[in-house]
Amino acid sequence: MVTGRKPYTPDSLAERWRVSAETVRQLCRRGVLAHFRVGRMYRIPADAVDEYEARKV
């Protein structure tokens, strides 16, 4: 596990993956992508992004 990396927002991750932010939020809601909430905002840990991308390769 790599520490010290900032979590992604749906917008920043959408830009990285070239999808919409709503697509990222749907992945979170379906439980496909690990995330946590800060109030109403989604945050996706960098480690969760690494794991998801590794599964998709």
Task: Give your account of this protein's structure.
The protein has helices at residues 10-17, 21-29, 46-56, and strands spanning 36-38, 41-43. It has 57 residues and is mostly helical. It has one domain. The chain has a two-stranded antiparallel sheet. A hairpin with a 2-residue loop joins strand 1 and strand 2. Helix 1 (10-17) packs across helix 2 (21-29). The radius of gyration is 11 Å and the shape is globular. It starts with 9 loop residues before the first helix and ends with a helix. The mean pLDDT is 94.
Write a brief structural summary:
By secondary structure, the chain is mainly α. It has helices at residues 10-17, 21-29, 46-56, and strands at 36-38, 41-43.
Strand proportion, as a percent range, falls in 5-15%
Uncertain residue segments? none
Could you describe the largest sheet, including whether it forms a barrel?
A: 2 strands, antiparallel
As a percent range, the share of helical residues equals 40-55%
* Order of SSEs: HHEEH
How much is the radius of gyration in Å? 11 Å
Shape: globular
Structural class: mainly alpha
State the helix count.
3
**Count of β-strands:** 2
Strand order, biggest sheet? 1-2
What distance lies between the first and last C-alpha atoms, to the nearest angstrom? 19 Å
Tally of discrete structural domains: 1
Give the mean pLDDT.
94
